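Audit log entry. Action: structure prediction of a protein-small molecule complex. Ligand: zinc ion. The ligand was supplied as SMILES and no pocket hint was given, so placement is left entirely to the predictor. Protonation state taken as written. Sequence taken verbatim from the request; no trimming, no tag removal. Recorded inputs:
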Amino acid sequence: MAINFLNDIERQPIQMHRRDGWVWRGDPSGHYTAQSNYNLLREETADGIQDSVYHELWKLKVPLKCTIFAWRLLRDRLPTKINLHRRQVEVSDTSCPLCRNAVEDAGHLFFHCRKVTPIWWESSSWVSQSAAFPKDPKMHFLQHDPSMVDGLRAKRWKWWWIVVTWTIWKQRNKLIFSNDFFDSNKVMDDAVFLLWTWLRNLEKDFSMHFNQWSSNISARFM
Ligand SMILES: [Zn+2]
């Protein structure tokens, strides 16, 4: 719809005596920058939703595309099959592409599907946490609360949440769009590697080699 709309208006001059051009309203210069987009989303968050979840999320300072992804997940704005169906998009089958046993909503796909629960179980054991996994994304995210985990590097626990959900979504899309095979072990491996790259880039005193760190992750996670 967006592409058709743009095709339609592109052929029509909007202002007769001036050249039409694109303007980004999020910045006084009219030019798009990732920073201004970030600020805009932050403002919307601050104005619209007095919710500590979003506040926590923006404070994590992880790559912007991952923050935006997590923000969409927490607000249930990802195009899961059930969300597409709700928006009247024709979806032939709303079942979870991973297990085919339940409707694909965010709570199932990311937290309750039998293909992903082993990932959460295993990682909970790294921080000696044992609790039921809420199905609501916000509740699940809040359970990854540093105050519930001892240690100075508690922020990692929230990074881990973003890394895992991000990797599940990537693999799920590969399965749907490229007919790739969904492998929970691969999700785990990819998520561990991605987290390691964040530690290398975001923690000044972290210099451990990937093999060294990942081979004993349960002891070295925190
Ligand atoms: Zn499933």
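Audit: result stored. The pocket of zinc ion is lined by residues 96, 98-99, 101-102, 108, 113, 115 (CB under 6 Å). Residues 34-220 form one domain.
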